[in-house]
């Protein structure tokens, strides 16, 4: 059975939703990133980048075990493992889907992450950094809203991996001080994706561990201090 080394964050939820949509059985191995599980040798043996999610498929290509990290790579692999589900097969649809997947990996993921850091986690509040990432967060919401004003889903008429990869970063908009009412096309899409049973099951994975309240000093040290940046 596929092992998912994960935690209930947006990047983790992409994989939980994908597996639920594809109907693939999987085993969850919790990696508590606030406690430092991401630095344990058994996890570093799967991903040198010490970030969730990662998977181990004992029945990978050629029947051999496959270790994989980076959420988009995992999603493309899982699609191909199931005969290409949720990635269009026609060339234009396929590249449009990959384009919106890359938009998430290079755009909303890193930028929303920096917004969270400077607006919510950083002890020192730096107005320039908060303003810069607030502007980026709003700009990226506008890009998605515009696309969804011309297309039912991100890659076209059908729901695809492009929607799955973006959804966990759009849910919980209040965390980014965003009101989805300001982005009506994005809100329409968000509500349609959120209503899918597989999405609802996916975002429940490990949800009892979701952070509530402020980060502790110990968590801050692990995520942003010496533990994070020591050479491995
Ligand atoms: N580009 C990576 C990003 C993964 C990532 O940033 N994961 C975060 C959780 S959402 C993490 O593991 N953080 C642990 C840490 O910062 O030590 C992907 O899409 O898989």
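-> sequence recovered:
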């Amino acid at each position: 059975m596929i092992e998912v080394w994960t935690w209930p964050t947006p990047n983790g939820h992409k994989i939980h939703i994908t597996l639920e949509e594809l109907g693939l059985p999987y085993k969850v191995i919790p990696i508590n990133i606030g406690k430092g599980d991401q630095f344990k040798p058994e996890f570093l043996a799967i991903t040198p980048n010490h970030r969730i999610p990662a998977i181990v498929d004992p029945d990978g290509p050629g029947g051999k075990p496959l270790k994989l990290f980076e959420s988009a790579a995992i999603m493309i692999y899982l699609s191909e493992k199931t005969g290409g589900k949720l990635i269009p097969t026609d060339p234009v649809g396929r590249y449009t889907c990959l384009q919106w997947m890359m938009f998430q990996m290079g755009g909303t993921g890193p930028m929303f992450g920096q917004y969270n850091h400077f607006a919510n986690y950083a002890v020192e509040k730096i107005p320039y950094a908060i303003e810069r990432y607030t502007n980026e967060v709003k700009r990226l919401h506008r890009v998605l809203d515009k696309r969804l004003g011309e297309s039912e889903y991100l890659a076209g008429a059908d729901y695809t991996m492009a929607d799955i990869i973006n959804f966990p970063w759009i849910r919980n908009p209040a965390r980014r001080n965003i009101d989805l009412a300001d982005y009506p096309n994005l809100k329409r899409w968000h509500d349609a994706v959120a209503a899918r049973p597989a999405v609802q099951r996916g975002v429940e994975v490990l949800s009892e561990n979701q952070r509530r309240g402020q980060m502790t000093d110990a968590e801050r040290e692990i995520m942003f201090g010496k533990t994070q940046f020591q050479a491995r």
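Strands lie at 2-6, 26-30, 54-57, 66-69.
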